[in-house]
């Protein structure tokens, strides 16, 4: 059977090409730091890249390789590089693909630390960056400089839920030899495949939907072509931000139910978004599945579903948001997202707290914005929980 030609769900279950000598149905945890060579010649060949035997777990490990191969298949890429966290994926992408004097143009409303590390750390090494609203292609074009080497897009953006046109970005970037990098965390490969839309590199915080059970922090990068893959893999090995085999095992386990979890959470989210939009105390709702979303049509074109992340604002602003967050009982008041449990948080004072007040305002990360990650509980219970919380606002 040709797995590459099979459907997404079949790939989820059978996509890894790991073959166990004992016929194990799951990929075992190779909890080892090092691998014995057959003889000195074999060891030398492994190091010379003339044999594909394993050497040392920072460089490669069968459990980790199985996960890398599976995500690369799901993203239709050349190869995957698993790393210790989503932020390790961000850092590896910057370190591997940028040089001193290079310039990056990026979505302004991205995960706070992904912007913070650029503006507070990479700037020390002479890397320049410009953060803009990337929903408008003309705004991106105007921000490009002769030394722009990377276009970094998060879509839908965390936490504004704004959607950027990836096909248009790829066209613009490739005309000028710029690498297009996409953070696909909010969609997972189930809802969006940026490499198919023209991106060169896609990455995920697998802490979120891909693992889905709020018990692992992990990341992965997938490159479309070998040249970029080799650069990224080499940087991961040098920097030592590799994944641990046990972490890889847990992610492989969570991954199997990705489509079931997303379908269920998405169905819940659609109903919750409508409930919020009709609630008299709610000022606005941003959810890609609502016709009121400013990029509703674009979302339908480039995503295979509207997902389970909702942002909304209350008419009573931050005070109301605070009362709501302190009075929900089923939704956990916690950062992170994409797990089976419903979470609520306040980006301006939590995930994006370190973004300056002026930059937050410019990026639309307003004080009234509440971010809701919808889980797979019974939707009536989530709505009841919100209802009673909103009654207290
Ligand atoms: N990219 C996106 C879109 C994210 O949402 C996060 C984490 C990361 C990258 C970094 O991944 P990590 O290192 O945490 O695996 N987002 C978080 C959030 O919104 N709340 O808590 C973490």
Helix and strand arrangement:
Elements: H1 8-14, H2 40-48, H3 62-74, E1 79-83, H4 86-97, E2 103-107, H5 112-120, E3 128-132, H6 137-143, E4 148-154, H7 166-175, E5 179-183, H8 188-191, E6 201-205, E7 219-223, H9 226-239, H10 245-255, H11 258-277, E8 282-286, H12 296-302, E9 309-314, H13 317-327, E10 332-333, E11 343-345, H14 357-363, E12 369-373, H15 379-391
Parallel strand pairs: 2-3, 2-4, 4-5, 5-6, 10-11
Antiparallel strand pairs: 1-7, 6-7, 8-9, 9-12, 11-12
Helix pairs in contact: 3-10, 4-5, 4-9, 13-15
The chain binds ligand LCS.
CATH architecture of the largest domain: 3-Layer(aba) Sandwich
Count up the domains.
2
Order of helices and strands: HHHEHEHEHEHEHEEHHHEHEHEEHEH
N-to-C terminal Cα separation, in Å? 57 Å
- Strand arrangement in the largest pleated sheet: 1-7-6-5-4-2-3
Instruction: Tell me, briefly, the overall form.
Output: globular
What radius of gyration results from the CA coordinates?
Answer: 21 Å
Report the top-level CATH class of the largest domain. Alpha Beta
Mean pLDDT: 97
Helix content: 25-40%
- The CATH topology name of the largest domain reads Aspartate Aminotransferase, domain 2
Strand percentage lies at 5-15%
Distinct ligand kinds: ligand LCS
DSSP helix count? Answer: 15
Low-confidence stretches: none
